[in-house]
Write a structure and sequence with these properties.
about 425 residues; mainly beta; Immunoglobulin-like; four-stranded mixed sheet; Cadherin-like_sf; Cadherin-like_dom; transmembrane helix
Length: about 425
Amino acid sequence: MVCSIPGNLPFILKPTLKNFYTLVTESPLDRESRAEYNITITVTDMGTPRLKTEHNITVLVSDVNDNAPAFTQTSYTLSVRENNSPALHIGSVRATDRDEGANAQVTYSLLPPLDAHVPLASLVSINPDNGHLLALRSLDYEALRAFEFRVGAADRGSPALSSQALVRVLVADDNDNAPFVLYPLQNASATCTELVPRAAEAGYLVTKVVAVDGDSGQNSWLSYQLLKATEPGLFGVWAHNGEVRTARLLSERDAAKHKLLVLVKDNGEPPLSASVTLHVLLVDGFSQPYLPAPEAAAADAAPAAPLTVYLVVALASVSSLFLFLVLVFVAVRLCRRGGAASVGRCSVPEGPFPGHLVDVSGTGTLSQSYQYEVCLTGDHETGEFKFLKTVFPKLLVQNIEKLKESPNCRNNFVRIFSYT
């Protein structure tokens, strides 16, 4: 008797005892490739004619956890518009496992971020059962335009197998920023005035409005428009670059001061805008001094700050105190020398010395002619200074002559400085 099976199966019949056979595997089985085999066993006798019989058996291949979960994509790119509502579904990831039962049950989790500075735990979360990703808070394109993280998928086999995929989230810009004017500054304490010569030709560049927008794409495209002017038709604004130019020749009949209101608008939907005020002054030439605005003139005419007044008073006080101390020092020195010999005395003749400054030129101003006289007295060998006096020769000529004729100071009277 002979037993046989088809030859295209990974099994063989192995004889053990007479007329006993064992079905064994000839090569490893893969349940994920083929989980069930229907085998027909044919038994043939050795008689003439030969007779045979057939018997069918079914072999089921049991599962082992030999397959890790596999994501449908190696990386995912998701997009979410900024200013989204919290708990918004932004996308999903999916992984499958070729095993069965618990070996094929997949759970999802967030893995540590690639960039440690990204606060992933406060940005997104994932549903462990279905892989749905729900943004946890409102996102701001200007603060965070994109971020990446990894998602893990693990089965429930023993031991568990896992895999991971990269997820990149792009934050789409929303038109939530109005244009910001860089020049001219609108919060400055003093207004900026542009000077334009009256001889300027048509198309003369007066100034340029510079603005930026924190958004991106068409939301940051800016256009400029002249809304209001003191004299319409005299100035124009180029829509795409913000240049302010003269629209025609200037004349003497045009007002000297002009005020322009320029609108800066982005291309978002809906558009956002900002306005800027320009001050223009027409002058006959750039050599003409700048005329301050009335506000600036009023500020210049305002009284000095209290601190300035205090400094002036303090300086005057210190100067007066210094002069007083010098006079006291001189007086004390003179008193100490009072007991010296009369030979060393310097007699000062009485005369009409002025007690205050007077006009000596007759023109209403003080004369600039001064002479300083020094009387050297005391011991001729030591040459000590005993008396120092400043006089005005044009008024005190007769007194000086008398002082020079004094017997004690005649030889010690020296002129040391003259300024005219």
